[in-house]
């Protein structure tokens, strides 16, 4: 087994961080480490926290870490921020904000740079989660921004999805209905000191009471709770409300375990992973070769000139590469 994998399995935070960086940088053969870590994964509770940029997710997570540490749970945090593709302010901001946990070996915090395509990001997140799980963190919190497709993608990685909304930030109920309803296990109204918090609360309660979240095969149902998190301007109240949120997240996990839905979610997660791996080992090399050889360009040219259609072209490529 490789040195780095061994160190990750022993809980070495710096090794975990290095491995994640190698994954981000797509250093060749890094996947070998992922193979070695795989059997040590699947034992953590993955909590997705999603919402618009500026909704206060990182601030909330910082306090959530403290709440988990009080329960003597170890915590890993992966912050995915598509709004800063380079090493932008948000990433530095997250690091500084969560610095109070820096000396605590029971806590691992890392921002994920989001270079490359959407699919690439999802793969990188999945792999980074594996690294954190293998390093022995019991709770893995994944922060994602609610931008476009990405927030929905979190459902492929997380067991429990917390959707963070802020009064008066245009998080109107139509938008919530459209996409977030299907993925939310818990709603959080953040910055509940703001105007409109009660209105949002009522609206969300209405929506939540209609919801039958996901997996209908189970006899037990989970009604989406709506939690208010107090302003950070009142640190004690803030900490108290985050503690309640922490308990609620735990309750959802216990619900998943008892109702056997955890294994459903694990299957969904694993299916997505297998898809990524198949894409990576089958389609990616083919696309690479077509690109490098200039064939992609000439195919596009033919399509533009209407000499052929994309389906026929794809069939021709498939005949060349796929033996069956
Ligand atoms: N008024 C108010 N501001 C907050 C609260 N929580 C966070 N903020 C501020 O909102 C801004 C964005 O917070 P951040 O946690 O980085 O949001 P993220 O982008 O969702 O991770 C920061 O300036 C925070 O200080 C809150 O409860 N009340
Ligand atoms: Mg953040």
General description of the model:
The structure is a single chain. It is built from 13 helices and 7 strands. It has 324 residues and is α/β, with parallel strands linked by helices. It folds into 2 domains: 39-259, P-loop containing nucleotide triphosphate hydrolases (Rossmann fold); 275-321, no CATH class. A 7-stranded parallel beta sheet has the order 3-2-4-1-5-6-7, sandwiched between helices. The longest helix has 32 residues, at 261-292. The chain starts with a helix and ends with a helix. The structure holds guanosine-5'-diphosphate and magnesium ion (MG).
List the helices and strands and how they pair.
Elements lengths: L2 H7 L3 H12 L5 H8 L7 E7 L5 H14 L4 E6 L8 H9 L9 E6 L5 H17 L4 E7 L4 H4 L6 E6 L7 H11 L2 E4 L7 H14 L15 E3 L6 H24 L2 H32 L2 H10 L5 H12 L3
Parallel strand pairs: 1-4, 1-5, 2-3, 2-4, 5-6, 6-7
Helix pairs in contact: 1-2, 1-3, 2-6, 4-10
Q: List each distinct ligand once.
A: guanosine-5'-diphosphate, magnesium ion
Order of helices and strands: HHHEHEHEHEHEHEHEHHHH
Model regions low in confidence, pLDDT < 50 over at least 5 residues: 84-92
Helix count from the secondary structure assignment: 13
Rg for CA atoms:
21 Å
Average pLDDT across residues?
84
């Amino acid at each position: 087994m490789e040195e780095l994998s061994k160190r990750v399995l022993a809980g070495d935070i710096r090794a975990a961080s290095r491995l994640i960086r190698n994954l981000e940088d797509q250093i060749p053969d890094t996947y070998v480490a992922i193979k070695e870590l795989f059997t040590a994964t699947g034992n953590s509770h993955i909590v997705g926290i999603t919402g618009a940029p500026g909704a206060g997710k990182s601030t909330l997570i910082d306090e959530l870490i403290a709440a988990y540490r009080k329960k003597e749970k170890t915590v890993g945090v992966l912050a995915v921020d598509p709004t800063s593709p380079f090493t932008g302010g948000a990433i530095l901001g997250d690091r500084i904000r969560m610095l109070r946990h820096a000396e605590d070996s029971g806590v691992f915090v890392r921002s994920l740079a989001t270079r490359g395509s959407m699919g690439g990001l999802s793969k990188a997140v999945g792999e980074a989660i594996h690294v954190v799980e293998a390093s022995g963190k019991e709770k893995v919190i994944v922060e994602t921004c609610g931008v476009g497709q990405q927030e929905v993608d979190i459902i492929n990685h997380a067991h429990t999805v917390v959707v963070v909304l802020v009064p008066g930030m245009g998080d109107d109920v139509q938008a919530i209905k459209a996409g977030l309803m299907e993925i939310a296990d818990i709603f959080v109204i953040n910055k509940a000191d703001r105007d409109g918090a009660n209105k949002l609360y009522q609206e969300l309660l209405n929506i939540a009471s209609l919801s039958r979240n996901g997996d209908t095969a189970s006899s037990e149902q989970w009604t989406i709770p709506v939690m208010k998190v107090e302003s950070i301007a009142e640190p004690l109240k803030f900490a108290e409300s985050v503690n309640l949120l922490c308990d609620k997240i735990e309750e959802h996990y216990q619900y998943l375990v008892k109702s056997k839905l955890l294994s459903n979610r694990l299957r969904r997660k694993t299916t997505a992973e297998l898809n990524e791996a198949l894409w990576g080992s089958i389609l990616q090399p083919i696309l690479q070769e077509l690109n490098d050889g200039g064939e992609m360009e000439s195919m596009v040219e033919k399509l533009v000139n209407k000499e052929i259609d994309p389906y026929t072209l794809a069939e021709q490529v498939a005949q060349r590469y796929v033996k069956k």
